[in-house]
Design a protein that fits this description.
It is built from 16 helices and 15 strands. With 423 residues, the protein is of the alpha+beta class. Among the domains are: 77 residues, Phosphatidylinositol 3-kinase Catalytic Subunit, Chain A, domain 1 (Ubiquitin-like (UB roll)), CATH 3.10.20.90; 127 residues, Acid Proteases (Cathepsin D, subunit A, domain 1); 45 residues, Ubiquitin-associated (UBA) domain (Helicase, Ruva Protein, domain 3, Orthogonal Bundle), CATH 1.10.8. 19% of the residues are buried.
Length: 423
Amino acid sequence: MEITVSNEINGQIFGPLDISDEMSLQDFIALIESECSFNKSIHDLYHNMDILDLNDDQKTLKDIGLSKDDLLLIRNKVNVESAVPVTDLTDDEFIEEFRNEVIRNPILKSQLVSQLPQLETLLNDSVRFKEVLGPVILQRRYSGSTPQNPFGIPQQEYTRLMSNPDDPENQKRITELIDQQEIDEQMRNALEYTPEVFTSVHMLFINLEINGTPVKAFVDTGAQMTILSSRLAEKTGLSRLVDKRFIGEAHGVGVGKILGRIHQAQIKIETQFIPCSFTVLDTPMDLLIGLDMLKRHQACVDLKRDVLMIAGVETKFLSESEIPKDFGTSNGVQFKSADEANKSPAKDSNPVSTTSGKISKPNTNKATVANPNVSQSQPQAAKTFPESTIKKLMDLGFSRAEVIKALTQTGGNAEFAASLLFQ
């Protein structure tokens, strides 16, 4: 005969199992223990909604009433003694007990991790586990019974709020609770329908060469300029080409010092050699390809095919295992609890990041750079420039204030000022 076994603990269905009705109950239990994750000490076996008596191992399947095409259910044993204290647990204790149960039960853990990959990390952090999954767990806890109040807050607070709902403070609190209900509902829907949004996404890197040196370059469409680290410039022999007149500051998530600019160098992507200019920073990231190079060579980021098309060639983005290991830890976004965020002091981040922003105009005045005795905080004396020079630069489409600022930064050099304005 054929029998189907459904394990309601892990949600798996086994069968139909082709077995003889003369098989002993002892042999059948051994079979479902190996095939169906059955454990006689903690599980019950149901047939037609009745618990089978598994104590008489010598009976046959026919003797206990099993027949062709029957369905057996595996469920946890009903433990009346342990059910009482669980009911008395507070919400926080209930969430912690659930976390410990998942850790203790490898079958349940593997099932939940397959649905929510982030769970593996959350299980090791009780605070984050409570913040992320607490609302969902409590909803399941009270789903079988009518909650004491619609907000799930202590009844004493609910009574106080409802006794005087027109009070401004009570109205503010009620509004917060309604908003929190909507947030919790959105989170439950996200966990159920789009669990992938809770996992991290690896960044876009490509392989290329600079002067024969292999480099893993970070492609950042949000960065204004292409950035080369001073360490890689030294390694590839480009440090001698750094124009130190273009020093300044790079502003992104943090602030970094611009050491200069390399106006042109060759990079090799696949079989194509491409001219590239770099802004040199003292940064741990070797190379960041910014929007200036991507637009210049009409690049196309094709995420469907996972390739970058640039200057007539096509190169694959690196897989997660090929990305530099230190990039994920130093540049990834890490969420903290509210308490941790308040305790942790704010730190300046490296400006070379996924949110790289504006890079300030470099100071190209040689005299200012060369003279170490000039204090940076000392205000510069007002300078006058020929009106014809100002008008010529304004004719290029810039305001008078922008032109005067550029001329001041370049010491009155009209060509340098024009180059600066077009950056």
